[in-house]
Amino acid sequence: MGREHITNLAAIDGVEVAVVADVVATAALDAAGLCNAAASTDAFAVARDPSLDAIVIASPDDTHANLTIAAVERGAFVLCEKPLASNVADAERVVAAEVAAGRPLVQLGFMRQYDPAHLQVATAIGELGAIRHVRSAHRNTNHQWERPLELVFSQSLIHDVHTARWLMGTEFSSVTTQVVSGPRPVEHVVVLGAMADGSTVTIEFVEATYGYDIDVEVTCEHGMVTAPQPAQPVVRFEGAGHQHIGDDWFGRFTEAYRAEAADWIAGVRAGEVRGPTSIDGLAAQRVVDAAIRSAVSGQREAVSPPFVTSGRT
Ligand code: ISE
Predict the structure, then answer these.
(1) What are phi and psi of 271, to 5 degrees?
(2) What residues pair up with 202 in beta bridges, in sequence order?
């Protein structure tokens, strides 16, 4: 993920990727070589370096919160990959550090908000009256390792939670989770969300074997919208027609990652955060927390209300 950000940022006029940090020295050198940057094995020193205007955090999930706090405490802008933290308490610490810094500094990598297909849905629903239901289907490429439910939620389903909050403009009030196990502990997850305004959400997750495939559909008072698949040629060959789907998020969200980088930089230059915020990260983390509790309890679980501090919600 770090290499994706380096490549996209280095292609923007006037942006210099100055230092790349990785605890593995050869990986740091290798990635730094993509953009003639310096290499470091000390990410905290880089986050605290006052000569750097802005920091991208694409390290392992459980380091996101402390690295973000280190950068925010010295007033640096941050683009942090999702999740904001690996638990609600740490996500709250990040928001508290940002509030103490006195202004929004953190953008969270919920890149679907920049995906042309998702943006077309957001525009189309504007004409169709109140939103009644969002369905987000996340078919992930089969991972090499077996992820426990907590990681499936914090790495994958958290995107769908953000999609629903962003498109619907309302918060989750409760969630009910059903998990299907097979050869792997988590094969299939379904989450039913009740939203504060009475609308509903279903999120479906599968560790698919055939490719990386994301669908979103929104049912409104006067109509329904589904996201188009990215345009691909239909190749007719040996008696069949084929259309490439892709097998990871880099392919599916290429445009989204580029647009995210460009918007983040434009925000940094203007001294503001334009994309998804730390509050979005915390809100999504709270939904994930309740959904995991529901998987364990077998009950519908309430989602804690949105964080409110100094007028920011
Ligand atoms: C992965 O970690 C990601 O970051 C992708 O955005 C997500 O769609 C995928 O499910 C995760 O495994």
Answers:
(1) 75, 30
(2) 135, 192
**pLDDT confidence band for 208 (50 / 70 / 90):** confident
Choosing from 114, 159, 214 the residue with most ligand 1 atoms within 8 A of its CB, the one to mutate for a pocket test is 159
- Global pTM reads 0.95
Residue nearest to atom 12 of ligand 1 (CA): 156
Nearest to 19 by CA among 187, 256, 2: 2
Choosing from 115, 139, 249 the residue with most ligand 1 atoms within 8 A of its CB, the one to mutate for a pocket test is 249
Contact 39, 32 (CB under 8 A): yes
For residue 144, give Cα distances in angstroms to 140, 173, 180, 266. 12, 34, 19, 37
Instruction: Report which secondary-structure segment, H or E, holds 78.
Output: strand 77-80
**How confident is residue 146, by pLDDT bands cut at 50, 70 and 90?**
confident
d(CA 201, CA 199): 7
DSSP characters over 121-138: HHHHHTTS-SEEEEEEEE
Tokens describing residue 238: 């040996």
Which tokens in the block code for residue 243?
């259309």
pLDDT for position 306: 65
Whether 142 lines ligand 1, by a CB cut-off of 6 Å, is no
Give the domains, in start order, of the chain with CATH numbers. 2-111+257-278 (3.40.50.720), 116-250+285-302 (3.30.360.10)
CB of 112 sitting under 6 A from ligand 1: no
Spatial CA neighbour of 47 closest among 83, 116, 82, 94:
94
What does the pLDDT read at residue 149? 94
CA distances from 210 to 74, 91, 140, 213, 254 (A): 45, 34, 9, 9, 19
Q: What tens digit of pLDDT does each residue of 16-63 get?
A: 999 999 999 999 999 999 999 999 999 999 999 999 999 999 999 999
